[in-house]
Amino acid sequence: MNGSAASAGERAGSVAVITGGGRGFGKSFGEALAAQGAHAVLIDRDGPEAEAAAAGIRDAGGAATGYAGDVADEARMAAIMAEVAAAHGGIDLLINNAGLHSDEYSQPIATMGVPKVRRLFEVNVIGTVIATLAARPFMAGRRNASIVNISSSAAHMGGTAYGTSKLAVAGLTITFARELAPDGIRVNAISPGLILTDTIRSELPEATKVRVKAMQYMDAFGEEADIVEAMLFLSSPRARFITGETLRVTGGMAAGI
What we know:
- This protein has nine helices and seven strands, in the order E-H-E-H-E-H-E-H-H-E-H-E-H-H-H-E.
- The protein has helices at residues 24-35, 47-59, 74-88, 109-112, 114-139, 161-180, 198-203, 206-214, 224-234, and strands at 15-19, 39-44, 63-68, 93-96, 146-150, 186-192, 246-249.
- Helix 1 crosses helix 9 (224-234), helix 3 (74-88) packs parallel to helix 5 (114-139) and helix 5 packs parallel to helix 6.
């Protein structure tokens, strides 16, 4: 599992809910948090995939549960959050990671059509709202309660419906940071750049990787561990005075004021 031995037990007794937890960043987040002692709750539209990821964490000695759920389904999200809180006493961390992406959602809006654009915003934007509101009652007043949203470098560069949906996520981060502050809940976001996940390594053409890297300040590719480390920091007491911020982990590609 991800996470250093030195930090093992740092989150003992805490409960972390991760949407889109069956694969990619979500799965890695769960592994890293479980390595530090948290109970990782992995929610994914693909229920068997969520349970398989949770089983992998348990096999490695961690604590995890998998749930089938679509973040755009308000009733389902409310039911899962209530069940998790009843079983574990509350929720300490929510990671709004579920999202639609890939080339399919980076086409011109006229090409995508309204139904696909609507679905994109239902998941990426409204799904963030739904999961946050569903978890809020069970996070209020918890020590170091924190929400981490996953935005994207595309949010800061413009040009696609996907990027616009992730720009909305960055905006919601500020809105919820203000609205949830009285409950003692911090809200921050991460905007990943080009990160060489297994999917990106296998599916993204080499020429595209080279082109994107040339847009960065740093002559290096981002790794999944870079995003995991950003999440671990923002959700930890070390970031106790940070809220409403979006951390760009892009090698400088999306740098800006």
